[in-house]
Write a structure and sequence with these properties.
Elements (H helix, E strand, L loop, with lengths): L1 E4 L8 H4 L2 E5 L2 E4 L13 H18 L5 E2 L11 H8 L7 E7 L9 E5 L8 H21 L14 E4 L3 H5 L4 E8 L3 H7 L2 H19 L2
Parallel strand pairs: 1-4, 1-5, 5-8, 6-7
Antiparallel strand pairs: 2-3, 6-8
Helix pairs in contact: 2-7, 4-7
The protein binds zinc ion (ZN).
């Protein structure tokens, strides 16, 4: 199992972030971005790091081997294509990218980004498994994350097809990409900024992953 806590917290990452890297389908993209933050200044990278570690702790307690795409929250990188190569490690059952959105302040909730095409190098089986993984994540987040489905993306389905996310475009293992709340919405920001809110979200994410791994 690979967890990809989006972005990173190191100082002075602009030069590295601006390097162009392969993003799939012959495109290039910047190595990374700094991510969003709440209006009070709680940064997305700290949120994704905290949630991913909580998820990893729960999964490891269930005997799941977990690889993280970055070792700490004060470094630079790795670039998105390197994260995709970690997600593509042979034998990995699933990969989950963890992010939060910087959406419109009057919208709230989680959504799940899916590749709108077949990822480069991924088999039809992998594409179908990615879909199943996304559905399992949505069920678990619906059941007990403390967040609603997004009110501003996905038309109530919480699914958002995209063709520009490197991790989805390049991963050859079942992969999904979670936007766990809208940091620019006051209600979501309060949940995301609280330890109990993050514990509940992480428990839901872990439950979704465990449901998928039991298939
Ligand atoms: Zn992000």
């Amino acid at each position: 199992m690979v967890l990809d806590p989006g972005h990173n917290g190191g100082a002075g990452q602009a030069a590295e972030n601006n390097k162009l890297v392969p993003a799939g389908y012959g495109r290039t993209k910047p190595c990374n971005t700094t991510g969003t933050s709440t209006n009070a200044g709680y940064p997305e990278h700290a949120y994704t790091w905290d949630v991913a570690n909580r998820v990893a702790t729960i999964l490891r307690a269930h005997g799941v081997r977990v690889l993280m795409t970055r070792p700490n929250d004060d470094g630079v990188g790795p670039c998105v294509n390197v994260r995709a190569s970690i997600e593509s490690t042979p034998g990995v059952a699933a990969a989950v990218a963890i992010h939060a959105d910087g959406g419109p302040s009057d919208g709230h909730g989680f959504h799940i980004c899916e590749d709108s095409r077949t990822p480069e190098g991924a088999s039809a089986t992998t594409v179908a498994r990615s879909k199943t993984l996304s559905y399992d994540m949505r069920s678990a987040l619906d059941a007990n994350s403390g967040l609603t489905r997004s009110t501003y993306i996905g038309g109530g389905t919480a699914f958002y097809p995209r063709d520009d996310l490197t991790g989805l475009n390049l991963s050859t293992n079942p992969t999904t990409f979670l936007e766990l709340g809208n940091m620019r919405n006051a209600g979501d920001a309060a949940i995301l900024s609280s330890s109990s809110g993050r514990a509940r979200i992480a428990a839901a994410v872990a439950a979704g992953i465990l449901a998928y791994l039991k298939r």
